[in-house]
Amino acid sequence: MATGPMATVRDVAAMARVSISTVSRALSAPDMVNEVTRQRVIDAARELDYRPNPAARGLRVGKTNNLGLLIPDLENPFFASVTKGVQSRARAAGYAVFVADSDEDPAQEIELIGNLATQVDGIILASPRAPSQDILDATAGKTVVMLNREVGDIPSITIDNADGVLQAVSHLRALGHRTIAYASGPVHSWSGEERRKGMVAVAEQFPDLTVVQLGNFRPYFSGGYPAADIAVASSATAVIAYNDLMALGIIDRLRQRGISVPDDMSVVGFDDVPVASLVSPALTTIQIPLAGLGRRGVDLLVERLEGAVDVTTRSEVPVELIIRNSTSVPAASPAASTP
Amino acid sequence: MATGPMATVRDVAAMARVSISTVSRALSAPDMVNEVTRQRVIDAARELDYRPNPAARGLRVGKTNNLGLLIPDLENPFFASVTKGVQSRARAAGYAVFVADSDEDPAQEIELIGNLATQVDGIILASPRAPSQDILDATAGKTVVMLNREVGDIPSITIDNADGVLQAVSHLRALGHRTIAYASGPVHSWSGEERRKGMVAVAEQFPDLTVVQLGNFRPYFSGGYPAADIAVASSATAVIAYNDLMALGIIDRLRQRGISVPDDMSVVGFDDVPVASLVSPALTTIQIPLAGLGRRGVDLLVERLEGAVDVTTRSEVPVELIIRNSTSVPAASPAASTP
DNA sequence: ATGAAAGCGCTAACAG
DNA sequence: CTGTTAGCGCTTTCAT
């Protein structure tokens, strides 16, 4: 760093009275060097608090041992959790991670991919917002894995959106709901589209159900307000939101209008971000193992970096319905019998 | 990166038919090179999508242009926001940032400081948990700035905790509260101690007030439960929590026990994390400019890195009371007149 | 088992 | 204005 001049191989070599190559070996190839010499080097290294300069090593070896993580917004608890998972797994695997926040800006994303690429061995793209073609161009020739989205042949880890929607609907249906609303996320959201399609599929699967599409809303708390109003205007007794943040907004708006959740309206979220369990009513939601998603992303990336070329390129993580207090039997439902 | 072999100065030099030093100059020293040659280099560089290898440059120049950020927990919205601020400002200043999450583990912190130090020009320590002496040792000779804590002579940016507490108490007092409880954070928390001391000072300042110290609680949602129970057992009509998360827990526990907030008990948080405005009742809290804290941290660090040695070493950012819906006049207060 | 030397990609003297 | 050269700290042949 700035003040204390870092010790280099040369310093250690001098103190241990060996050549610099012996220092290098003693520290990495445990057994290519005489036991006693090695100890001398180790001691000198410790004494000087010597740490190999990663940049220098990287330059020589052609590998930085750094990973890049690109996310749309750190203040979105979804990505905070994913980042946390990436962080810890990367460290365990011996990588440091550059985190870049694109602020939901597709253009920034593309630029950041280029920046990151100069300093890392591989990049994790979490829910990138940019158009597929732009991503394809920007990542050409780079080692990249994608989280929560699929584009082209880029290795990816996604979540089982269809099953999530199915679980949510099944839950609601079992409670007695027959008209269920769905509040979509942004039009261009990949996972949003997946979930919307899932809703359509589920609707076909249950002929006794009426599924009403409320429209597209911003995937934040604020997006829940218009969604709630439209839901109320519909005949739905339950609403599934694109994500937890939106679900929270829906609940808040409902409360403002004197509509009780879950008594008058059931609400289901998606993601199970940490805050979902801290609000009241606690949110029934589809749990995505967010930190796990991050960890698996690192695993996949590291595999491609160090291992075989043809490892599995796409996988999907399961989701699980977490029933809390924002769902119950519909107000005047015949199925509303509490044993 | 992995597949596409990155172009180097040499490639660009070849294509532009100049020497490598001319390439280097054309790209950094705009006017040390002939206009037309320069353009040839620029073109070649663009053609090859050339990007100087930061590691190589860093090695040569003795500056990485990377910053390290160490935080206790990314899933804590406090740090997510700080990180976001650091991120954006660092990028604007031409730095990439390594983010390291210590998982609230003091030992990890010390180790991570050492790891980070090998790859960065400077480090930002956000609310480190380790003992002062350990931090002093680990950062000796390194360029470091600290956020939300002071130790030794390390340059720091803190917040005006005393004023925050004062604003909270004044607000409550104005509403008519006369017995106010304070739920402290962890014993070893620096800011926790600052706020506790602030409460004591405020208590002395207002002779008509009774301040009851509830004890020390975990600075999370869960810590709010015991705090709430003790608050209820006391005669306080309002409680100020160490932070927003704890305040949320207090409110939740109060609700469980059928105690209405703010009607039966007022609650004030601290930090104004994003979720504070999304819950119901929306939390009255002391707002800390969290992202701003991160940005100022970068500014201070970069100043020390690039500028004079004796820039201001300690500063404090102001806080502001945000009045929302978790506070009101006390239940049976004589001051309870709504005009 | 150890040392000498080359070279990763880059910038900064130092010539010219 | 431009080219040659050295060297940042490290690992890795290649000798010995």
Automatic annotation (TrEMBL), chains A, B:
Keyword entries, A-Z: DNA-binding, Transcription, Transcription regulation
User: InterPro entries from the xrefs?
Assistant: HTH_LacI, LacI/GalR-like_sensor, Lambda_DNA-bd_dom_sf, Peripla_BP_I
What is the name of the protein in this document? Transcriptional regulator, LacI family
**Coiled-coil stretches:** none
| HTH lacI-type domain ranges (all copies) | 7-61
* One Pfam family from the record: Peripla_BP_3
Q: Which domain of life is it from?
A: Bacteria
A Gene Ontology MF term for this entry?
Answer: DNA-binding transcription factor activity
4Fe-4S in keyword set: no
